[in-house]
Description:
By secondary structure, the protein is mainly beta. The chain has a domain at about 30-205: Neuraminidase, CATH 2.120.10. About 5% of the residues lie in helices and about 55% in strands. It contains three helices and 25 strands. The chain has a five-stranded mixed sheet with strand order 1-22-21-20-19. The protein has a four-stranded antiparallel sheet with strand order 2-25-24-23, with no helix packed on it. Strands 3-4-5-6 form a four-stranded antiparallel sheet, with no helix packed on it. The N and C termini lie far apart (about 40 Å). Mean pLDDT is about 85; it is low at about 1-20.
Amino acid sequence: xxxxxxxxxxxxxxxxxxxxxxxxxxxxxxxxxxxxxxxxxxxxxxxxxxxxxxxxxxxxxxxxxxxxxxxxxxxxxxxxxxxxxxxxxxxxxxxxxxxxxxxxxxxxxxxxxxxxxxxxxxxxxxxxxxxxxxxxxxxxxxxxxxxxxxxxxxxxxxxxxxxxxxxxxxxxxxxxxxxxxxxxxxxxxxxxxxxxxxxxxxxxxxxxxxxxxxxxxxxxxxxxxxxxxxxxxxxxxxxxxxxxxxxxxxxxxxxxxxxx
Length: 260
């Protein structure tokens, strides 16, 4: 295993130094995601999903209280937002206005497993991980299985419980808090393990991963880890959209910060 270096990255940490303007977007936020345009999507304890368009400061809401608790959202394709309700094994697809396009029950097409994590795939379908059978699956837009791996325990020699799945470029990342980040190709072939333990994966970009561990905001790239900030006692889930725009949670408030 290659040595991981811990260094301060001054250039990116400067987002905390220059004059800044803060805008509170919402209260009581459970989690949020940012799309490639810079719009932010968040959901609260009432399981209401909201989209905030930063350029025009417009809010759009979606709620389906019958489906239960929102487990995760995927906004990697802003034209097709994915909302996952793990307890009910329901996936909802929403359009750019958060209008429901489709609602599908995973157990109707895949009744034999226990799905804990999903992510959008490049074929307008989904990736999902079956904790019961320890399988990685790729599904089409109707949740029909088009690929499934064998038992990943036989490949990885360890039992993993991914709490997040991210597709970026030609790679798929399975994030396990206790075992690291497992990288696969888009055909489900195992490539490598990134030996970092994370509390939450925040961003995946070309050759770099932003993540949070304890009170540290960290960047992993080129086989080393750099500290972006070591003072996150009140801040959670920082997201650097650009050198000028920065999101984070503070006491459950979603904050948009811009550098002047």
